[in-house]
Amino acid sequence: MNRSRTTRSGFAWLELLLALAAIALLLQLWPALGNVVLWSLDIRNWPRTVWFLANVVVIVVLVGIRFGPQLFEDWRLRRERLAKHRTTLQKGQEMKEQRETLERLKESQRRRIY
User: Fold this and answer.
1) Is 27 exposed, middle or buried (0-12, 13-18, 19+ CB in 10 A)?
2) Which helix (H) or strand (E) covers residue 56, if one does?
């Protein structure tokens, strides 16, 4: 158990290092990109619409964190319940077809002339 946890942790570090290497490559290929990124990250340069959108995103994320797990659990339980209902209906249909087949066989045996 502990070993798999360290293995996954190693992959996370590898992914992080690969992302940093890609960012470093981009900054070396286009040096002006670094200045643009720093300017855009400076919150003093943000217009009101960006502030509004940032606040909306934060609120949506917080609502998702609060209600998301319960909504996901309800969705999963509903899918399980519907799957059980479908299998029950399917088994009922199969049983009905088997009964009809047996009834036809019995009816045909009654009509048979020896």
Assistant:
1) middle
2) helix 48-111
Q: 46, exposed or middle or buried, with CB in 10 Å at 0-12, 13-18, 19+?
A: middle
**Two structure tokens written together for 25:** 């490559």
Contact 45, 39 (CB under 8 A): yes
Token match 């009905």: residue?
Answer: 96
- How is 83-102 classified by DSSP, letter by letter? HHHHHHHHHHHHHHHHHHHH
What sign does the dihedral 82-88-91-97 (CA atoms) show? Answer: negative
Task: List the one residue out of 52, 50, 28 whose CA is nearest residue 41.
Answer: 50
Compute CA distances 39 → 27, 32, 35, 44, 71, whole Å: 14, 11, 6, 9, 39
Q: Is 47 left (phi over 0), alpha (psi -120 to 50) or beta?
A: beta
Residue type, 58: V
How confident is the model over 53-100, as pLDDT tens digits? 999 999 999 999 999 999 999 999 999 999 999 999 999 999 999 999
